[in-house]
Design brief:
GMP Synthetase, Chain A, domain 3, single chain, alpha+beta, Luciferase, domain 3, 236 residues, three-stranded antiparallel sheet
Length: 236
Amino acid sequence: PAAVMEYFLDEHDIPIVTAWGSTEMTPLATCTHIRRGELARPRREHIPTRIRQGIPCPGTELRVLDDQGRDVPWNDEAIGEIHVRTPWSATEYYRDARTTDGFVDGFWKSGDMSAVDANGVLRLVDRAKDLIKSGGEWISSVDLENALMAHPQVREAAVVAAPDTKWLERPCAYVVAEPGAELDGNALRAWLEPRFARWWLPDHYLLVDSIPKTGVGKINKRALREQVERDLGTRA
């Protein structure tokens, strides 16, 4: 999140470099790159570039494809799945049926959804399975989470889809507040309103003591999706 980058730059004089990759890529496929003409600008002005996932590393072939298998336009709006291929990356899963759907013509289908700007720089939007489809439009849980995490009284946040009879899915935000903070759903909504279209705003804000994690410390979205219907009775 930009707020984390700003903190490390302001408090410790440390610029953070963003990269994207996976075990299949062993491990990097892209990295942020500050263009030569921008190097003389104050480092804080580099943050909008640094929070993106960057450009392909040398030797990396990368495409962002829509659900029809077509390259998305480089307008930073159209979203597609990242497909990537390198001479050193995996080409199959050992004795695993996932190989059939996971690789196409040597390209690994990442499951990560991205947009691409006019300079070919990736902006990761979400995992395909974590995108929220509301009324036929896509909402990025990652963008909402990053905005919530920028709130000075929020320690941690996660956003998942809650079933909705009218819109199919609506965003539900789980929030861990900083000790002593006084937060509620109205305050969180007011924080997000200037940053997103109204239909992006979560319908539910659940204040919790902790957010479930996987064995490697990532937010366990699967667990949250399973419990969200039970939790809606305790919305903030």
